[in-house]
Write a structure and sequence with these properties.
single chain, about 725 residues, alpha/beta, Amino acid/polyamine transporter I, Rossmann fold, 3 domains, ten-stranded mixed sheet, 29 helices, 10 strands, elongated, disordered N terminus
Length: about 725
């Protein structure tokens, strides 16, 4: 599909995430069901229900936010996140039913709005009201998303005024100080008060807090989703939780438990000004309908962009204003079908299950990404491992608490979609983390991983070193550095070059056995083999060519050079051979006996950054050196000083560019970035307050030039050459 050069309006944190998320959470249940929850469960029971519900959604919000700060999220929100990590098959299997759930939810919100409206217009046909309400939603959405968000500002204002009126009930009513802390679970009007239970009341309340994805669904329309989704979602969940908890005490004070259980309209009847609360109720349902109708087509748009559905090219079409017009029309048809069904009670539980499965999968993605420990997983919002674990297990558990049969049916539905998409054999141009996942799980997954993606993914990159060694001192001098590069998830394969001298050969093998033992003590993946060495370059070159056929192959040649070494031409040839065989290359040159000093401070030198680096997500031959600096910094618990050599007068690095580089690479917070002019050697000599210098190997640079840099700076250095498999901006 051709890229559409349409400049569309994008939205910030407040408009694009906070407002729709808040309006979806502060919905109809808050107005007409929360008093009933307090009347049945008592204050303590109601608090337990609210806090347990929020625990599930808040962990999901944290997982969602953490993943968002680590990836370039596309359109489709949760679908995009799941697809990037677990593949389009699983992402689509979740995204398709999630889309239908969002679309049908519009019809349910319209029914809720109509029920509130009928108190004012009892003589009007309900079906005509439904069609009229949907026509209003449709009109607002088709004018523009921007206009829809402006309407939501008005609704947010009405809801805030209604909350003030509800809190004002404490001033105008005789207060009930005989608070029932533990409820009797008397039931509801519908079952003639024949009793309920904690879990029945929980199931009624839980849909109130399931709006955490409302902002994420707009990911493709956000100016900065990596920033807006975490801030907007988490702040919305915290604020709405405080509101729900406070309303528990308001309800307990303004009415008796019998009134709360028997009158759904307690908040309206006892409010400081009842009409504004009724307006808030209507506004809440209208905003939820509007938010779902704006969000659902974005999910369908994302499914179309990934060629998952029939007629995908048409689904992905945008209007001149950047609106997914075809996706909106199809969504409108689905909503109308839902309206014609009249009673959605039979399928409403299934829609809730689809929401829950989506939340569970978002947490599972966070769990998988965090467990793999790939260098590409560097979220700026870090969460403990137990957070996504609680979110995933909690979401699945709640599904079965609500309804075992419906939960099982919903899971079967998801599996059906998954098998359908697997049969389609869809491919993603961007790739995903599955190869890294299967590699980490076990070797039996090799065949599966190859079927998913023939080439290595940059997001699955980790440092897997191949080190040719002819003498023990080569490994001894670089042992600590190698450990700092590959710990905890990398690996090293040592290529012992057979020596003519049998005594030296035996000493080398004994040393390698001890070195391997040391690496394994840190639970690192390490192995070595001895190979006949006729000529250094020929031996290493043939080894690289052979290993290119292996699945678990190294991706970086590591060489340690003594500054006094005379046969540097070997390593100049190694530069060419590594590039030819698509291997990265690290050349470590320690300065005399100084080695790596106190292992705290790192100077990273970045050169030849292209002018369009932000648009192309390409910083030239600086990816491997930057990744290595990040890995070493993490293991040293040190700090990085980035020096960008900018001798291109056409290019200017503004403060915003520096901040963007910091954000896109996800450097540690204490990292400093400076712009340098002049010769590299002069700058390196000037910046001597460091433990190691890390460079990329510029075009035409020889090993002699590297040794000169080390000798003049009197600081050990690491020189890196990129292959085609690194990208620090992923």
């Amino acid at each position: 599909m051709e890229l559409q050069n349409i400049k569309k309006k994008t939205f910030g944190t407040f408009a694009g995430v906070f407002t729709p998320t808040t309006l979806t959470i502060l919905g109809v249940i808050m107005y007409i069901r929360q008093p009933w929850v307090v009347g049945n469960a008592g204050v303590i029971g109601a608090l337990a229900i609210v806090l347990l519900s929020v625990a599930i959604t808040f962990t999901t919000a944290l997982s969602l936010s953490s993943i968002t700060t680590n990836v370039r999220i596309g359109s489709g929100g949760a679908f995009s996140l799941i697809s990037q990590s677990l593949g389009l098959e699983i992402g689509g299997a979740i995204g398709i039913p999630f889309y239908f759930a969002q679309a049908i939810a519009v019809a349910m919100y319209i029914f809720g709005f109509r029920e509130g409206l009928q108190t004012l217009t009892p003589d009007v046909n309900p079906f005509i009201l439904d069609i009229g309400i949907f026509s209003l939603v449709l009109l607002i959405a088709f004018i523009s998303t921007s206009f829809a968000f402006k309407i939501q500002y008005v609704i947010l204002g009405v809801i805030l005024l209604s909350l003030v009126s509800i809190y004002g009930a404490l001033l105008t009513n005789e207060l009930n100080y005989s608070i029932e802390w533990f409820g009797k679970y008397s039931g509801s009007i519908e079952n003639n008060f024949n009793g309920s239970s904690f879990w029945i009341v929980f199931a009624v309340f839980f849909p109130a807090v399931t709006g955490v994805m409302a902002g994420a669904n707009m990911s493709g329309d956000l100016t900065n989703p990596r920033k807006s989704i975490p801030i907007g979602t988490i702040s919305s969940v915290i604020i709405t939780t405080i509101i729900y908890i406070s309303l528990i005490f308001v309800a307990a004070l303004i009415a008796t438990p019998e009134e709360l259980a028997g009158n759904y309209n307690v908040f309206i009847d006892k409010a400081l000004y009842s009409p504004i609360v009724l307006a808030g109720l209507l506004g809440a349902t209208l905003s939820s309908a509007l938010g779902s109708f704006v969000g659902a087509p974005r999910i369908l748009l994302a499914l179309g962009e990934k060629r998952i559905l029939p007629q995908s090219q048409r689904l992905a079409k945008l209007s001149s204003k950047g609106e997914p017009v075809n996706a909106m029309l199809i969504t409108a048809v689905i909503v109308i079908i839902g309206i014609f069904l009249r009673n959605l009670n039979t399928i409403a539980p299934i829609l809730t299950m689809f929401f829950m499965i989506t939340y569970a999968m978002v947490n599972i993605v966070a769990l998988v990404e965090q467990s793999l420990g790939l260098p590409s997983y560097r979220p700026t919002l870090k969460i403990p491992l137990f957070v996504p674990a609680i979110g995933a297990l909690g979401s699945i558990a709640i599904m079965f608490v609500m309804n075992v049969i419906v939960a099982l049916f919903s899971l079967v539905f998801i599996v059906f979609f998954y098998l359908y998409l697997v049969k389609m054999n869809i491919k993603s141009a961007a790739g995903d983390s599955r190869s890294g996942l299967f590699t980490a799980l076990a070797e039996w997954a090799t065949k599966k991983t190859n079927n998913l993606r023939q080439e290595r993914e940059v997001r699955s990159w980790r440092p897997d070193l191949l080190m040719p060694v002819s003498m023990p001192k080569e490994l001894r001098s670089s042992f600590k550095l190698i450990h700092s590069i590959i710990y905890p998830k990398g690996s090293i394969k040592i290529l012992a070059l057979r020596n003519v001298n049998e005594i030296e050969q035996k000493n080398l093998e004994n040393f390698l056995k001890n070195a391997v033992k040391k690496f394994k003590e840190s639970e690192l993946s390490v192995s070595y083999t001895t190979i006949d060495n006729t000529d250094f370059n020929t031996t290493v070159n043939v080894s690289m060519q052979s290993l290119n056929a292996a699945f678990f192959k190294p991706n970086i040649i590591f060489a340690s050079i003594d500054t006094s070494t005379s046969n540097l031409n070997y390593y100049n040839n190694l530069l060419l051979d590594a590039k030819k065989n698509n291997f990265g290359l690290i050349i470590y040159i320690p300065f005399s006996t100084a080695s790596l000093a106190i292992e705290k401070s790192i100077n990273l030198w970045i050169t030849n950054v292209p002018e369009d680096w932000k648009e192309s997500f390409n910083i030239n031959n600086n990816d491997l050196s930057t990744l290595i600096s990040l890995l070493i910094c993490r293991n040293w618990k040190g700090n990085i000083e980035v020096h960008i050599m900018n001798n291109n007068r056409k290019m200017e690095f503004s403060k915003t560019d520096i901040e963007d580089l910091h954000t896109m690479v996800r450097f540690p917070k204490n990292t400093t970035i400076s712009i340098n002019q002049g010769e590299l050697l002069d700058n390196v000599i000037r910046e001597r307050n460091t433990d190691v210098n890390i460079f990329n190997v510029e075009e035409g640079m020889l090993v002699e030039d590297m040794v000169k840099l080390v000798n003049h700076s009197r600081i050990s250095a690491i020189f890196c050459v990129d292959s085609d498999f690194e990208n620090v901006l992923v």
